[in-house]
Amino acid sequence: MIDHSATARPVTRARQPADGSPRWLVRAAAAPVICSVLLLGLLSAWVVTGGDGTISRVRIDITEASLAEPTQPGRPATMYLTVMNLSGADRLVSVTTSAARRVEFVRRQGTAQGPSQQLTSIPIPARATVNLNPFTTDIVLVDPGPMTAGDTVPITLRFAGAGRVTVRAAVTPPGTP
Q1: Residues 6+ apart with CB under 8 A from 172
Q2: Is the pTM of this model over 0.70?
Q3: Residue 44 has what DSSP assignment?
Q4: Per-residue pLDDT at 32
């Protein structure tokens, strides 16, 4: 029987940097740094493409949009609108539509025929729902074109923070939301 243990070479390992040496610190930090850079890149791409939760984006949802058919040709058409602000405070600064020559913001005192004040914009508080109707703050289509109950009218709302939101407002019989 031959004893090979005497002729076998000892197993050698690659020399490891000593704990605390600069090479050891670079090796220890490489993986977390690479992961952090990759994650930062992915999050940046998510924000740029409009992912939910972006810092600067204001989210607005319109849950109801309707127009009361004018009682007579040439009379203003009033809008019923429910605006849900899902983020920070914003302002509705303008409304445009092909269905009227001009759109105004009006604040009324208690009744649809009561005294009114023209507004330049409508505040939309943070994380709130705002109901616009002829009895409070209202959007009025001045000199509207012909419209009949059952029609839909494209309306573009422009918010200071959220930008443009386009909805189709259903035309309802006079005096109904």
Answers
A1: 66, 67, 68, 69, 80, 149
A2: no
A3: H
A4: 80
